[in-house]
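Troubleshooting log. The previous structure file for this entry was overwritten by mistake, so regenerating from the original sequence record. Sequence copied from the archived sheet and checked twice against the printout by T.R.
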Amino acid sequence: MNPDFTLSDRILAFVQLGIRLSNLSEDEKSPFFRQAENQNAWFTQRSLEQALEGIRVMLDARALEKWLAAYTSLDPRSPKQVGLMLSGNIPAVGFHDLLSVLIAGHSACVKLSSQDAALPLWLIQELKKIEPRFSDRIQVEDMLKNKQAYIATGSDNSARYFNYYFGKYPHLIRSNRTSVAILRGDESTADLQALGKDIFDYFGLGCRNVSKVFVKNQEQLTDLLDALESFSWVGNHHKYFNNYEYNKSIYLVNRTPHLDNGFLLLKESTDLVSPIGVLFYEIYSEEHELKTKLKDLDSKIQCVVGNPAMDLPGIVPFGQTQCPQPWDYADGVDTLQFLGSLGE
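Regenerated output below.
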């Protein structure tokens, strides 16, 4: 490895990648957008554009500077090969792990999801063009054997698999999480419409998507459905609409009480994770009791959405779940702190 490849050099390369994303033409995006949607029909142009914008915001020079100011161990004496097992539920969802490994001065050995290969590969190629010294530090591999550390993301089942194979190495292994929202009853129409982004962006497939709302009473649900009418476009996507219709037919056959606005079903449930096309709700009476409940469910929740005035640590304003900053770590685990400890 090149000892002259400093943290400042690496930061600059990522800032330049962000600028590159800002200036992409439609002709440049079109080929890998088509490839991405062919690999995964959930990856529409809207979703891909949003993923690129999220990465661009993450690579803003001021955001990176703020993020990295808290760390002192990002030029390791003994860089490691870190295996990255990336998920594929939303476009380029593993980019933050790649960013973290490279910023921390290690090498990234990347196993891409078959559901999300086109966009990550394009980003890697562009990064290597911008900074050729990354060519020795990024390898895309089919098998992640004999690495010195691992970061893996997947379902609860795959997390057990990852723990079995990678448990003897330094590792970060993430499993299923979801996000929830709290409605107090004083939300404006604009708040509820912003919540629609948290529910429907990426068709609800991400861990930062809201799959359940806590409400004070059922009357709030009518206001919510009315406010969500502008998101009817999700019903035009065949995979989403097939899921919506399937779940609707199950509820109708079983005479399960539910609300329906033609593209979203609202169903009362104590569960956290709802099927595609369904939003679970639960009625609460006392806010302090709800906070205690959420604290007990902390290991299963990625984001809690609501009014920022609520006395809840890390509460996310309506409409902001899919706009994470570099310091918004998955599962709340500090990836850079983990990576910094590897080179000691």
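Residues 85 and 111 are 5 Å apart (CA to CA). Archived copy saved in two places this time.
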